[in-house]
Amino acid sequence: MKEVTIYTDGACSGNPGPWGWAAVLIYGQHVKELSGGSEYTTNQRMELTAAIEGLKALKEPCKVKLYSDSAYMVNGFQQKWYTKWEQNGWKNSSGQPVANKELWQALLELTRKHEVSFYKVKGHADNKWNNRCDQLAVAAIPK
């Protein structure tokens, strides 16, 4: 199974507001950059979208180390929030519908295709690839 590293990020101009997302995929010496944006959305949606698009770009099942500065997304997987959500019919602990349900479900489906480990990185720090994702995401924000 190929081992791939993916860095993801979302960037904003208001929340909600126009947003961009980016993913950088690294396999050996190969680097692939992806990005996109939306005119009116939220930070959380763009963070999840970046991870979804990064994983969707893989052509075969891979072992993936996914790095993000989104505590929301990383904690959701590291702490397995989704197991309770699935058991509760996609309701949160307050009995309300899970925010961004369709994105969580899409991401969860991809994590079942690939062997994905999630890692939290500090945003806007000294991480070369997280910083590159931020640059790409900012550039993808619709003007």
Automatic annotation (TrEMBL):
Any one GO CC term of the record: cytoplasm
Entry's cofactor comment: Binds 1 Mg(2+) ion per subunit. May bind a second metal ion at a regulatory site, or after substrate binding.
PROSITE patterns the UniProt entry points to: RNASE_H_1
Catalytically driven reaction(s): Endonucleolytic cleavage to 5'-phosphomonoester
EC class: hydrolase
Record: residues binding Mg(2+) 2: D9, D134
GO molecular function: magnesium ion binding; nucleic acid binding; RNA-DNA hybrid ribonuclease activity
GO biological process: DNA replication, removal of RNA primer
Chief site of localization: cytoplasm
EC number of this enzyme: 3.1.26.4
Keyword Cytoplasm: yes
Keywords per UniProt: Cytoplasm, Endonuclease, Hydrolase, Magnesium, Metal-binding, Nuclease
Occurrences of domain RNase H type-1 (ranges): 1-142
Residues that coordinate or bind Mg(2+) 1: D9, E47, D69
Cofactor names: Mg(2+)
Residue ranges the record marks as coiled coil: none
Places the protein is found: Cytoplasm
HAMAP family given in the database record: RNase_H
Family: Belongs to the RNase H family.
NCBIfam families, alphabetized: PRK00203.1 (NF001236)
Assembly information from the UniProt record: Monomer.
Purpose: Endonuclease that specifically degrades the RNA of RNA-DNA hybrids.
Protein name: Ribonuclease H
Source lineage: Bacteria, Bacillati, Bacillota, Bacilli, Bacillales
Gene, per the UniProt record: rnhA
